[in-house]
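About this split. The held-out portion is used to measure sequence recovery: a designer receives only the structure tokens and must propose an amino acid at every position. Recovery is the fraction of positions where the proposal matches the reference. Here is one held-out target exactly as it appears in the evaluation file.
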């Protein structure tokens, strides 16, 4: 009967299969290491960009808070507008008075 481990099979495994599997293992291992390095670099870049965006938003909020109209200013503008609109309304309600004068 044929021996399952004939010299040709052992030679094939030793010369072809073992180096091929070793090369594939090395490629997978290197690819995984590079992927982890790239992921770490991307994570650092994203965290840095997020920190910059938060800083810019904080600066914008501060600028808005500094230049935003205060309640007292808005009340003053509303009072002046109301007075002006009331004067206009009074003139529109009495057009005959102007014509007689």
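Reference sequence for scoring:
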């Amino acid at each position: 009967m044929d021996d399952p481990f004939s010299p040709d099979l052992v030679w094939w495994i030793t010369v072809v299969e073992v180096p091929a599997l070793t090369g594939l293992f090395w490629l997978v291992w290197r690819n995984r290491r590079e992927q982890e390095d790239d992921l770490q670099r991307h994570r650092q870049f994203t965290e840095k960009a997020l920190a910059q965006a938060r800083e810019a938003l904080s600066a914008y909020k501060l600028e808005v808070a500094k230049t935003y109209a205060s309640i007292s200013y808005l009340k003053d503008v509303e009072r002046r507008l109301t007075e002006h609109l009331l004067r206009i309304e009074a003139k529109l309600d009495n057009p005959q008075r102007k014509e007689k004068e």
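Annotator remark: Residues 69-101 form one domain.
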